[in-house]
Write a structure and sequence with these properties.
By secondary structure, the chain is an all-alpha fold. The protein has one domain. Helices cover 70% and strands 1% of the residues. It has a two-stranded antiparallel ribbon with strand order 1-2.
Length: 418
């Protein structure tokens, strides 16, 4: 009997730098954000500047963490349909260190946003004290960043080791050499990676749900300490996951030419990703409806102020309905078509609209608590700061893609034929 030869894994798509014009555009966006932020503070628009900074911090930080969580969900379900999408989500960890720096800046300069820093609320004085709240939330961000790093490290190490074997240690980056220190060969490393991920992944998912609920309660719901909602924390972390999914889809579409991975994606994979986004759309919509249903059915007037302010007052009412339509009803209608989920261009348009709606949700979750004027505070300053965060996010992700292959290792065709 002739022994069969195992398929030898191979890096079919090594890391490739994106076109210089892409990085130049993103750097321009990041610079515009910095200029807009500084100009807003110097021109006496500190409230508008800090509140849009806060909105963007919540949105992009949650989105980045949600991308890593998508990879963890993919791992824990033993899925095999879209490893490329998983790797894109893992790359979002590159924004988390910057996110923590942005949090420190927010705490240092944006104290005027939080009413509980300047007013007493009996029964909540300890919980809403500045050092205690900012300290525990800072620890939450650090802990989730550390746990996410452990997850991504053990996920990408086998691929980085193969890349080093293929190209030579001198040809990979400093980070690549660091992450493959004491490399012991593919089979040993892969087995250890699977074992460690089996232990880390459940903890990461549970920690995300619990701790991001706390972030929603602390940083958003506490903007009105008289308002309470037991379901808001759930809705907050699901929205972060939802936003992570749609950005993974968008990055998969636009980066295929950047990294030369057009041939790596199959039609069925786009369809599966579209179904994934659709499923989380239904889940988050269900949580939103459940929040309303509990308030109405339980006759809880203390929980109505949030909805009344946004559904029955100007200028927030049209924005609230736009969010509901484009985050829930629009995807519900278009994703019923199988063909739409199979076309990358169509997915790009749909997910871009959903992303805008989810950003709008973060905006109207925060700003009506702070802004008392009868107009929507979104002008040049807000646009510049938002572009700055978006540019910084994608630039961070590209730093990851410069080190780690965007398509995980696959059996080489030569070995697979034996």
């Amino acid at each position: 009997m002739i022994p069969t030869r195992k398929a030898v894994p191979e890096i079919l798509y090594p890391p490739v730098a994106p076109p210089p014009r892409v990085k130049l555009l993103l750097r321009g966006c990041a610079l515009a954000g910095l200029v807009g932020f500084v100009a807003g503070l110097l021109l006496g628009e500190s409230q508008r500047t800090w509140q849009i900074y806060f909105v963007n911090f919540l949105f992009w930080s949650g989105l980045a963490q949600g991308g890593v969580i998508m990879a963890a969900v993919y791992r824990i379900t033993n899925a095999h349909w879209g490893d490329h999408f998983r790797r894109i989500g893992e790359g979002m960890i590159a924004f988390l260190p910057l996110s923590f720096v942005l949090y420190v800046i927010l705490v240092a300069g944006g104290g005027g946003l939080f009413p509980w820093l300047h007013e007493r609320f009996p029964g909540k004085d300890l919980w809403l004290s500045g050092p205690f709240l900012f300290g525990r939330d800072g620890l939450v961000f650090l802990f989730l960043m550390w746990l996410s790093y452990r997850f991504v490290y053990h996920s990408v190490r086998p691929d980085l080791g193969l890349l080093r074997d293929r190209t030579g240690e001198a040809d990979i980056s400093w980070w690549g050499r660091r992450l493959t220190k004491n490399w012991r060969g593919w089979e040993i490393e892969k087995a250890e990676s699977v074992a460690r991920l089996a232990r880390i992944t459940p903890g990461l998912l549970i920690a995300f749900a619990l701790l991001y609920s706390l972030i929603g309660f602390d940083l958003v719901m506490a903007l009105d300490p008289r308002w309470s909602s037991t379901l808001y924390g759930w809705l907050y972390f699901v929205h972060a996951f939802y936003a992570g999914l749609v950005v993974i889809t968008m990055l998969a579409v636009v980066s295929r030419k950047w990294f030369g991975t057009l041939s790596a994606f199959r039609e069925a994979q786009w369809h599966d990703m579209g179904r994934f986004v659709f499923g989380i759309c239904l889940l988050s919509g269900g949580f939103f409806w459940s929040q309303f249903l509990v308030i109405w059915y339980g006759n809880l007037p203390e929980e109505t102020s949030y909805l009344i302010r946004r559904f029955y007052s100007q200028p927030w009412e049209p924005l609230m309905w736009a969010y509901i339509i484009f985050a829930y009803l629009f995807p519900l209608a278009v994703f019923l078509s199988r063909r739409v989920k199979e076309v990358p261009g169509a997915l790009m348009v749909i997910t871009s609209i959903i992303l805008g709606a989810l950003f709008l949700e973060r905006f109207i979750a925060v700003v009506p608590f702070i802004w008392i004027e009868p107009t929507v505070p979104f002008g040049v300053i807000e646009l510049a700061v938002t572009l700055g965060f978006a540019g910084a996010f994608v630039l961070s992700w590209l730093r990851f893609t410069a080190v780690v292959p965007m398509v995980p290792a696959a059996p080489s065709q030569a070995a697979a034929g034996h």
